Amino acid sequence: MQSTTNYLWLLSDLLGQGATANVYRGRHKSNSRHKVLVMEYCPYGSLYTVLEEPSNAYGLPEDEFLIVLQDVVAGMNHLREYGIVHRDIKPGNIMRVIGEDGRSVYKLTDFGAARELEDDEQFVSLYGTEEYLHPDMYERAVLRKDHQKKYGATVDLWSIGVTFYHAATGCLPFRPFEGPRRNKEVMYKIITEKPSGAISGHQKFENGKIEWCAEMPVSCSLSRGLQCLLTPVLANILEVDQEKCWGFDQFFAETSDILHRTVVYVFSLQQATLHHVYIHTYNTATLFQELLYRRTNISPPNQELLYEGRRLILDPNRQAQMFPHTSRDNPIMVLSRELVTTCACFHSELIKEDFNEQVHKKAEVFHMCNHYVKNIFIPHLSHSHILDLCPQLSGSLGSMDQAMQDIKNKFIPGGTLTDTWTQQVGTHPEDRYVEKIKVLLDAITAIYQQFKKDKAERRLPYNEEQIHKFDKQKLVFHATKARALFTDECAMKYRLFISNSEEWMRKVHHVRKQLLSLSAQFISMEQEVDMIMQRIYMVNDVLWLMIFAVLLLVFRMKKLKEEMDGVVKELAENNLFLERFGTLTVDGGLRMDRI
C-alpha cells in the first residue's frame, strides 16, 4: 500500500505501464472538491494485450481483425477531419472494450504526441515507438543521425501499416536476426532498402541476407480472400518513397472498399478448404465465379456448385445480394467437373435420384407414344417407319435401365461408392483428439500466465524459483505431447483419409461420366420421341381430314342413291304406262296405219 496526503493505492493493482510511468488504481482519502479529468476506463487491455495471448500468436481471427481495421480506420478518419496527426500509433495505444452486443470495440488513445497538422504541412519534432517509426524518423530518433528532412501527416500511415501487419500475423513485419531493439542498424537497413511491393523483411541468420516477401506468411490466420485485398494496401502505405506512398484519401477509399464487401463462404471439396470470397453486393455471378477460380483454380465452366445438398445454378447476371445466405457452417460447396489430384466428398446420391426420375419420365412418354403408334391407323405410307423406330427406342430404354441399375448398385450397402470406409479411416468424435489437445493447451496457458507474473517480479524467492523451473519442464512435456498428438495421430490419419478419398473420388467421377453419357442418350431419345410425336400429330390431322372426306363421300353417295331410287321409280312408272298403252291399241283401238 502506498499513499500521499490525499491518495492511496496498491502496487499490485497495476492498470497499465507506459514509457515514462506506471498507472495504478487510486482512491481519494476525502473529498477535496478539486476539479478532476475523468477518462473512460478500458478494462480489457489493448490490442497489444490481445496479440500477446497464445491463441493469437499467428494473428487475430478474421472477424476480430476486420473489427480492428474498421475501428482504426474510422478513428484515423476522424482525426484527419480535424487535421490531427497522432504520431504514435501502435497496438499498445489501441484500447479494447466490449460493446453492448458483446463485440470488441477498439479505440485510439494516448494523444500525448498528437498535434494539428494538415496534409500539406510538415513537422520536425520526434515522437513514436521505434518498431513502428517511419524510416526517416527512425534514422534521426533511434540512430541519432542528423538530417534536414521534414515529416508529413503520412508518417501515421507507416505506423498503421506495421500495426495492421502485426495484428494480421502476430509478428512485426521487419525483423533483424537479434530483434529490432538489439540490432538497430540492420533494422534501419531493412526499412530503408525495402523494395516496392514488399510488405515484410526478415533476417533469419546473423549477418545473413534479408528475405523480402510480398505476401502474408503461411501461418497467417486470415483467409486468402482477405489477404489478397489487404496486401496491396500494406504495400502502398509501407512505402519509403513519399512520392509512391498513398495519401490518406486513397487509403480511406481502399479500406472502405474492403469493409463494404460481403463474404460468400465456399468450401472446396477437392482442396478440403473453406474459402472466403469478398465481393460487393452489386457484383454478378460472373465475377463471383472468376474470383472463385483464383482461389480454387477451377475454371468457371468446370465449377459444380452445391448448396444445402442440391445443385446450385447461378445466372451470370445474378447479383451477389441474391445469392443464398452462407456461413462457415453452411457454405456453398464447389468441386471440379474434371478429376483432380486432391479430393473430398461428392453428393452423387442427389444426381442419381434426378436421373432415376428422368428415366421414369422418359419411359412414360415413350410408352405413351408406343401405344399411340401401335393403335392408330397409319393412312400414309411415308409414316410407316414410326413402327420401325419403336423397337429401337424400346431396346435403348432397356439398356439405359440396365445402366441405371448398375449405377444404383454402386451406392447400395456393399457397393463400390458407399462411404463405409470413412468409419475406419480418419479421425472420429470418439477419438476425442480435440478435447485432449484442449486439456494440454489449458495447462500450457496456465503455465504461460504464471510465467508472465514471474517476469513482473524482479527476483523470485527460492521456492518459487524451483516451481518456476519445474513449470518449465512441464511446459516442454505438454508441448511435446501436444505436437506428437497432432503430427503422429491427427495429421497422419488425415493424410490416410485424403489418400482414400482420392481413390473414392476417381470412382465418383467415373460414375458421373456414366451419368452424363446417360443424360446425352436421354436427350437423343427425347428428340426422337418429339419427332415421333410430331409425325403422330401430322398423321392424326391427316386422319381427321380423311374421316371427314369419307363422311362427305358417304353423304354424297347416300344422296346419289336417293336420286337413283327416284329415277328407278320414275322409269318403272313410265314402263307401266307404256304397257297399258300398248294393250289398248291391240284389242280395239284405232291404229293409225290403217286409216
Automatic annotation (TrEMBL):
Cellular location(s): Cytoplasm
Domain Protein kinase: 1-263
Keyword terms of this UniProt record: ATP-binding, Cytoplasm, Kinase, Membrane, Nucleotide-binding, Serine/threonine-protein kinase, Transferase, Transmembrane, Transmembrane helix
InterPro entries: IKK, Kinase-like_dom_sf, Prot_kinase_dom, TBK1_CC1
Annotated transmembrane regions: 536-555
SUPFAM superfamilies to which the protein is assigned, alphabetical: Protein kinase-like (PK-like)
Coarse class of the protein's main subcellular location: cytoplasm
Keyword Amino-acid biosynthesis attached: no
UniProt keyword rRNA processing present: no
Gene Ontology cellular component list: cytoplasm
Protein name in UniProt: Protein kinase domain-containing protein
Native source species: Astyanax mexicanus
Gene name tied to this protein: tbk1
